[in-house]
Amino acid sequence: MRPQGMKSWNCCVFLQHLTTTLPMHTSGVGNHQMFLPLLQRAAEMKSTGEGDKMSCRRSAIINISTLISSIEKCPETFAIAQMYPYRTSKAALNMLTRCQAEDFKSHNILVTAIHPGWVRTQMGGEQAPLTPLESVQGILSTMSSLSNKDCGMLLDWQGNTIPW
């Protein structure tokens, strides 16, 4: 990451920022064992919907990720947001998402990551096109349509797949 005004790579600054952002974006997600019994119980409930065994109506873990965590999209997104530690920690979150999806698939627990969009927040800035309300509405709409096919995926707030 190049903090505001930093023109060149600085390994010490990167490590300092990474030691803050990595636990922030991964440690809570990594504590899934604490609530696993509740997720398993919810997953065992009878589905009122269609044939999918996994959905947010039953049992799900939804991680908030970002477009700029995508390794494949890095060439397109790097110029607008270098943010090395943030990208790195969110890419780690993506790996946790994918691992949890594999781990919990046999329990019918849906695990996916969602990019909320570029949102007008302190981090996103005033130039961001989405209001927090628009982002949340999109995320909720996307969550309501999640199914087996979305398990282990990175999606945007509109439900579009983002490559890892």
What does this protein look like?
The protein has 164 residues and is of the alpha/beta class. It has a single domain, classed as NAD(P)-binding Rossmann-like Domain (Rossmann fold, 3-Layer(aba) Sandwich), CATH 3.40.50. 40% of the residues lie in helices and 10% in strands. It is built from 5 helices and 4 strands; from the N terminus they run H-H-E-H-H-E-H-E-E. The protein has a 4-stranded mixed β-sheet with strand order 1-2-3-4, with helices on both faces. Helix 1 packs parallel to helix 4. The longest helix has 21 residues. The two termini are 20 Å apart. One of its GO terms (molecular function) is oxidoreductase activity. This is Zgc:158868. InterPro entries: Fungal_SecMetab_SDRs (IPR051468), NAD(P)-bd_dom_sf (IPR036291), SDR_fam (IPR002347). It comes from Sander lucioperca.
Q: Which characteristics define this entry?
A:
Fungal_SecMetab_SDRs, SDR_fam, four-stranded mixed β-sheet, alpha/beta, globular, Zgc:158868, NAD(P)-bd_dom_sf, oxidoreductase activity, Rossmann fold, 4 strands
State the distance separating the first and last CA atoms: 20 Å
Radius of gyration: 17 Å
- CATH homologous superfamily (4th level) name: NAD(P)-binding Rossmann-like Domain
What sequence of helices (H) and strands (E) makes up the elements?
HHEHHEHEE
Overall structural class, as computed from helix and strand content, comes to alpha/beta
Give the % helix.
Answer: 40-55%
- Tell me what portion of residues adopts beta-strand conformation: 5-15%
Report mean pLDDT, rounded to a whole number: 88
| Number of helices, where a helix is a run of at least 4 consecutive DSSP H or I residues | 5
CATH C-level name: Alpha Beta
